[in-house]
Amino acid sequence: MASWVQKVAAAAIALALVAGPTASAQPDLRDYLTQQLDNQEPDNAERGFAHAVGPLSGVLSSGASAELPLTLRAGQEIRIVGVCDQACDDLDLRVVNPRGEILALDTRGNARPVVDLRAEMFGQHTIEVGMVDCRAPRCRFAVNVYTR
User: Fold this and answer.
1) Is 98 in a helix, a strand, or coil?
2) Taking Cα atoms as reference points, which of 106, 116, 117, 126 lies closest to residue 75?
3) Which end of the chain is flanked by fewer CB atoms within 10 Å, N or C?
4) Using an 8 Å Cβ cutoff, are 83 and 112 in contact?
5) How crowded is residue 121: how many other Cβ atoms within 10 Å of its Cβ?
6) What pLDDT digit, counting tens, does each position of 4-62 carry?
7) CATH 3.30.310.80 holds for 29-147
8) Contacts of 116 (CB under 8 A, 6+ apart)
9) pLDDT single digits (tens) 116-135
10) What are the sequence ranges of the domains in the chain?
11) What value does the mean pLDDT take over residues 83-106?
12) Residue 62, SS3?
């Protein structure tokens, strides 16, 4: 009689054989978003920016938005890069200071917004991510923050 460990191992192997090719043929969406952000790295490095935070990610339907908190120091130079999945046609970014004032925004009709800014004050800022156009019920997005 097989032990429970052998039964579990046999079940796992059987599942891998059945699901393996199908599962590996589908690209992982997180990998897609990470690759899109990684594609921006050379340009950011060329401009003197170093990766600081991210990826910060989420899921939004068309017309919805999310707020991501970000603590900044006065005088700090920041670049924020956003990307979204293949069903997304337009993603917007806004950065709001602790007083509620918009410091920078990218509301152009694109799926890869970029905002550059210099923080005016220390404190909790907010990255507002807006999913303007998503052709699916929900789209995934990811954001990286760079400093110099």
Assistant:
1) coil
2) 117
3) N
4) yes
5) 13
6) 334 433 333 332 323 333 333 335 666 888 888 888 888 888 899 999 999 999 999 99
7) no
8) 77, 78, 79, 104
9) 999 999 999 999 999 999 99
10) 29-147
11) 95
12) coil
